[in-house]
Amino acid sequence: MQLASLKQTSPGRITVVLEDGTEIRSSLAVVADLRLFAGKELDEEQLGELRVLSRRSLARDKAVEYLSHRPMSCRELRDKLLEKGEDEAVADYCVGWLLGQGFLNDARYAAMVVRHYAAKNYGAVKLRQELSRRGIPREFWDDALAEAPEPEDKLDAFIAARLKDPSDRAQIQKVSNALYRRGYSWEQIRDALRRRTDTLDEEST
Question: Is 94 left (phi over 0), alpha (psi -120 to 50) or beta?
């Protein structure tokens, strides 16, 4: 099959037009690597290589663009590519290539997720839920969670700001439920409430 023409559609994007009118969306990098030019004859094996390399190149650029908007785990990126119509082989290739380039790093991303939600006063349960929701493998959880600050100070500050009357059961229940939703255990909440009561007793004496 003869290559009829090369049409540049945007910076870095090339459409390869074959003599039968078939168009293959590709990239400048692929065209350069395969040394394509108008009039070149391509056999079936070369055409297959052109199609595979073109799909990979375009999907790789798309993946880099996704990561430029926000960090992702390997699974999140793979799911995103599949959602956008890429096949599994291309999605796996993109994830592998980005891992090799250092653009994807689940351990680094896990630490980032923990820092972000710990800063929002979320407890360990919520932190684990977020790590799971983002598809981060469990092998990276422990190291990331070890970087989270101890919860006592954040719990104490949260309760001090919201619990004005430690004898008000409705207020205690409201604050306790809010902390539980943030991922703290009932035991941690009870201990924090006890510390708050002790502090107020000390201040009143």
Answer: alpha
Is the Cα torsion angle 187, 192, 198, 204 positive or negative in sign?
Answer: negative
Instruction: Using DSSP, state whether 107 is helix, strand or coil.
Output: helix
pTM greater than 0.70 (yes/no):
yes
Please check whether residue 95 is in contact with residue 104, taking contact to mean a CB–CB distance below 8 angstroms.
yes
Q: What is 106-146's CATH topology?
A: Arc Repressor Mutant, subunit A (1.10.10)
Shortest CA distance to 6 belongs to which of 18, 47, 156?
18
The answer to whether 3-101 and 106-146 have equal CATH topology is yes
H/E run at residue 153: helix 151-162
Name the one residue in this structure whose structure tokens are 């430029």. Answer: 68
Pull the structure tokens for residue 172: 């205690």
Specify the fold of 3-101.
Answer: Arc Repressor Mutant, subunit A (1.10.10)
Tell me the backbone φ, ψ of residue 122, rounded to 5 degrees: -90, 145
* Segment 92-129, tens digit of pLDDT: 999 999 999 999 999 999 999 999 988 888 888 889 99
Nearest to 110 by CA among 152, 83, 82, 146: 146
What lies within 8 Å, CB to CB, of 204 at 6+ separation is none
- Cα 176 to Cα 194: distance, rounded to the nearest angstrom: 12
